[in-house]
Amino acid sequence: QVNIVESGGGSVHPGGSLRLSCTTSGFSLDSYAVGWFRQIPGKGREGLSCSNTDGSTYYADSVKGRFTISKDSAKNMVFLQMDILKPEDTAVYYCAAEASSLGSCRSEGSSWFRPGYENDYWGQGTRVIVFS
Predict the structure, then answer these.
(1) Contact, 113 vs 61, CB < 8 A?
(2) Among 34, 38, 4, 37, which residue's Cα sits nearest to residue 22?
(3) Rg from Cα positions in the chain
(4) Distance of alpha carbon 65 from the chain centroid
């Protein structure tokens, strides 16, 4: 049974940083692509970043250079370091996963980054608020 739990959200001022953590179980990071998406109430999902089984990482233009994805396969954990946060980053952030063989995390043009794309598995989300 796949289980994904996010943590680390909170409130920060613009320019601040947060580190989101994702604890996973029920699958191996050696065979699943993992990453993050966010959702603003009333708006669709936005794929932010993903990490494939070969260690390749990809980012949406909106967060490139500010967010960094990493993972600890031994601990089945995924992280998202978010720096230089902006008010428009305010959203609920979700950790997601799906089999690497689906091909959704192979480039920044992959399906992971298509607006509204639904990954096979995701957690309950953690809220991030960036306010002046």
Answers:
(1) no
(2) 4
(3) 13
(4) 15
